[in-house]
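Let us practice reading a record.
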Amino acid sequence: MANTPLRFGILGCANIARAFVHDVAPSPQVQVVAVASRDADKAAAFAADFKLPRHHGSYQALLDDPGLDAIYLPLPNSLHAEWAIRAAQAGKHVLCEKPMALDRAEAQAMFDAARHHGVMLLEAFPYWFQPQTGDLLRLLAEGAIGQVRSVQASFGFMLPNPAGNIRMDPALGGGALLDAGSYPLSLIRLVMGCAPQQVWGHARWAESGVDIATAATLLYADGRMAQLSCAMDGGGHRQALIVGTDGVLETEYLNHTAVRVGGHPQGYLPSQMRLRRGPGMRTPFEPVSSPVGSGFRFAAEAFAAKVMAGDHAALARAAEASLDNAHTLAAIARSARLGQAVAL
């Protein structure tokens, strides 16, 4: 397979699936060849829109398609574990939308199934694969801001027409923490390199029972701290502040990026990142420029490269982070429900 594209099938026809197929279409390294829906007509219409060779009227039929190497899984959060495991049993690699699962036990079962059946499973945070994120990690590794002492990360948006939206349904794994909070938590885990020792969460609850907004403090065994916030009832925001002993880094860590404001067909914007070297307040920030593009394409191509190379070690490191994130998200939710700190 080294010189052929990784052939993807898409489980579901949600808007995010449409965006994924659109953005990866120009890639020589991945190829979307099929889509499935529980509504056969919907699958046929999706395939026609994107000129896909095949479509299926059930998810299992897609998994049984011998012409696929991998599955992109953008189903509701509550369905990730079931269909990632079924895909692994069918011998398909899985690129799974965030959050990986509802808790660590589900995530562990997913990775166990992938390992048992000899396939690769990766959680798809598009910003993870942005060149900007690579530059951020490089700067931290070089000691550009000294030793990291704290991280503050947030992500939120105003949910349009919440009535009937799956994000408001607790049975489908809805709520701000899983939908939006998984992003800042993943960035915190990326920077800190491990899970926290203790969390304390606070939430504002919707009538449906999901959290409409959550904030949490994360405490680490070595004394470092982090703060997370997420919301589905406020203006769009996505920022992170990383504070070190000898400087700070600020980033928007966007999923998809463009060179300039305006003119991009999908409305992608520049993702700002800036660096202040030194502990003083009078040192000016310097902008950090990175290559831009679709996080969907960056993620799919990175996944394809690891699959083609059989790089199980890289996927194992990503799996460790995903397991930590699933465990931490569940602990924050429990803390918010109990009104007290929870140890991991």
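A brief commentary: The two ends are 41 Å apart (CA to CA).
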